[in-house]
Amino acid sequence: MNPAMLNKIKKMQRDMLEAQKKLEQSIFTGTAGGGMVKVEATGDKRIVSIDIDSDVLNPEDKDMIQDTIVAAINDVMRKIDEETQDVMGAFTGGMPGFF
Q1: pTM
Q2: Is the Cβ–Cβ distance between 97 and 85 less than 8 Å?
Q3: Residues paired with 29 in a beta bridge
Q4: What is the full per-residue pLDDT of the chain (99 aa) written as tens digits?
Q5: CA 77, 79, 80, 81 torsion: positive or negative?
Q6: Which of 5, 52, 71, 89 is the most buried (most CB within 10 A)?
């Protein structure tokens, strides 16, 4: 392969990895119910927080419910990631960087 082309490909790979890291560290916010529920997640799809409007819940239960929902969502996301790795690993032969 042409050395100049190989260098361009390597630079593109480095740039893509850097961009991916920035995305993974970014915080995204979603809302529902006219703002009654707000969810924050990182770019790698990990839930950081859930905020439910106090008018919707009993104030004594709010923190526990929010934390429990965050834990359940992150647990299912982890399971999806594991299954994706297992299934797709058959196609990639365990090569890093693919899924």
Answers
A1: 0.66
A2: no
A3: 40
A4: 788 999 999 998 998 888 888 888 899 999 998 889 999 999 888 899 999 998 888 888 899 999 999 999 999 989 988 888 888 887 766 566 655
A5: positive
A6: 52
